[in-house]
Amino acid sequence: MTAAVRASSGPPPDFRRRGHFLRKSQGAALSARLAGGEVAQPVAREPAAAEPARESCLEVMDDKPGTLSENSELLFSFGVIADIQYADLEDGYNFQGNRRRYYRHSLLHLRGAIEHWNTEGRLPCCVLQLGDIIDGYNAQYKASEKSLELVMNTFQMLKVPVHHTWGNHEFYNFSRNYLMNSKLNTKFLEDQIVHHPETVPSEDYYAYHFVPFPHFRFILLDAYDLSVLGVDQSSPKYQQCLKILREHNPNSELNSPQGLSEPQFVQFNGGFSQEQLNWLNEVLTFSDTNQEKVVIVSHLPIYPEASDSVCLAWNYRDALAVIWSHKCVVCFFAGHTHDGGYSEDPFGVHHINLEGVIETAPDSQAFGTVYVYPDKMMLKGRGRVPDRIMNYKKENASQF
Length: 400
Ligand SMILES: Nc1ncnc2c1ncn2[C@@H]1O[C@H](COP(=O)(O)OP(=O)(O)O)[C@@H](O)[C@H]1O
Prior knowledge:
Bound molecules: adenosine-5'-diphosphate
Order of helices and strands: HEEEHEHHEHHEEHHEHEEEEEE
GO molecular function, one term: ADP-ribose diphosphatase activity
Number of helices: 9
Keywords: Acetylation, Hydrolase, Metal-binding, Zinc
Protein name: Manganese-dependent ADP-ribose/CDP-alcohol diphosphatase
Shape: globular
Helix content: 10-25%
Pfam family, one: Metallophos
């Protein structure tokens, strides 16, 4: 990687110039507050709602999304699923020992989800797989390739494309180089914006964007772009990332957040390079200009109100600063937490952490379909995934 590797608290140097919401001084003030660990409040404009409705779960969403929004036409839909973590193992527990993990049953959960999507009245345009597709235990049992093949064969039954995000368990099983050449690399599904070379992602990280429906752009981010996982330990990048991690985490066990003021600085997390954030900023600038709605996907969450702080991306504030300087982002989907979470941030971006398949009992389910309307997106959750309504920012609701 040639670009500077850092995990600072500040936004990228050039994004505010293109910003729609933050004047430079306001952006600096916001960044300074965030650096102190404070969750940002609206700076340059009114929040989307006076009191953002946290946990605005809708228990009453019915099974026929076409009837949900009578005045509004369903444009398209997409599926979401997270943390399958398949392994051919007996049930186990998470590190704390308080959440059961159903390693074998996770494959049956995936099959159930695929059967559901395949039989929806109107097929979703695609499925977003939010990372951790097989569990790290596979590496210990030398079963990584076999387990991946089994899960990928299951995904073959899906009638629509699947976009794969990479999480920490991908890197417990495989090197980044291996992943780049594997079926988990779905970058071939990317969209290229002609005449805007700055929106072409670098090969140094695994990120891309695509347009499944006119005026809706989806962006997959690489939350392990800065990481000690999956990187050759003799490389300069590994040394740089280890330095960042050690600067924030003095524990001898780097997976332990014990005593940390910024508990996200653990080995099982990672972050976004400045290079990737600059690229994200360019794509969002294009989307703003062209009045697109944007959905962002990453294995790691970036909004503290929607997530356990131990699960956040190292430099989540940098990613938030970029996103908040644009008007186009509707929602940010992440996995990793397994417990799930939701919050609408003060800039009207909906942060959804999807419940993990791996910690879902056999008699339940964990996936969802998002129905996209001209004025909102509606997540219809299955099993332990709650329904959510994600209204677009008011000043940005458009006609399609
Ligand atoms: N508090 C902790 N202290 C030390 N190691 C931990 C802690 N939490 C997790 N780990 C280790 O970090 C790795 C990732 O944790 P895991 O729970 O498997 O992640 P995930 O939630 O992505 O499945 C495992 O090797 C686990 O043992």
